[in-house]
């Protein structure tokens, strides 16, 4: 039977990535990602926020991209796999570790801190263009009934004769 070892995180970076290169020349970047969840305490009724910290490791080109674009506080989406390890601390006590070896990285949020006008690099410049988002469904008022339509003309049988010519490229 096949097995699955997959992790998906959406959270905020806790620190800038630490980038290093192995003797083979392979790039490695480490970052901490915080994820938070909220729940209501049964006893007090207060909302309690629980933050978990995750150690994420990027390799090769993904490490270089993370090192260039991921910054402390920036929201990111990470896909990867769990990797368990052990080490012995300075007191001689064996410690267990859990790392996420990233296979995908998606930068979330705006372009702040990316060298554009929004990070103060170009004072007096134009504001950044708005992010394109899917339109939200807006409530509609009752519209007048549309006029009756004529039946559409029959379409040709081939798949290419009915294509529009207003393709933007």
UniProtKB/TrEMBL annotation:
Subunit (UniProt): Homotetramer.
Compositional bias ranges of the Pro residues kind: 145-155
Protein keywords: DNA damage, DNA recombination, DNA repair, DNA replication, DNA-binding
Pfam entry (one): SSB
UniProt keyword Endoplasmic reticulum present: no
Motif Important for interaction with partner proteins mapped to chain: 164-169
InterPro entries: NA-bd_OB-fold (IPR012340), Primosome_PriB/ssb (IPR000424), ssDNA-bd (IPR011344)
Record organism: Rhodoferax saidenbachensis
Superkingdom as given in the UniProt entry: Bacteria
Positions of the UniProt region annotated as Disordered: 109-169
Role description: Plays an important role in DNA replication, recombination and repair. Binds to ssDNA and to an array of partner proteins to recruit them to their sites of action during DNA metabolism.
Transmembrane segments: none
Gly residues composition bias: residue spans: 110-119
Bias kind Low complexity: ranges: 133-144
GO MF terms, alphabetically ordered: DNA binding
The name this protein goes by in its record: Single-stranded DNA-binding protein
């Amino acid at each position: 039977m096949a097995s699955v070892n997959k992790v998906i995180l959406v959270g905020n970076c806790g620190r800038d990535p630490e980038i290093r290169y192995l003797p083979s020349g392979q790039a490695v970047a480490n970052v901490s990602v915080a994820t938070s969840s909220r729940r209501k305490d049964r006893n007090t009724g207060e909302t309690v926020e629980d933050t978990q910290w995750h150690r994420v490791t990027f390799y090769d080109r993904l490490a270089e991209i993370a090192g260039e674009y991921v910054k402390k506080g920036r929201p990111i989406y990470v896909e990867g796999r769990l990797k368990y390890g052990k080490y012995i601390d300075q007191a001689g006590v064996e410690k267990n570790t859990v790392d996420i070896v990233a296979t995908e990285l998606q930068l979330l949020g705006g372009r702040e801190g990316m060298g554009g006008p929004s990070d103060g690099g170009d004072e007096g410049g134009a504001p950044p263009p708005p992010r394109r988002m899917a339109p939200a469904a807006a409530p509609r008022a009752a519209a007048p009934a549309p006029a009756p339509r004529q039946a559409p003309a029959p379409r040709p049988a081939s798949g290419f004769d009915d294509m529009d010519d207003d393709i933007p490229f």
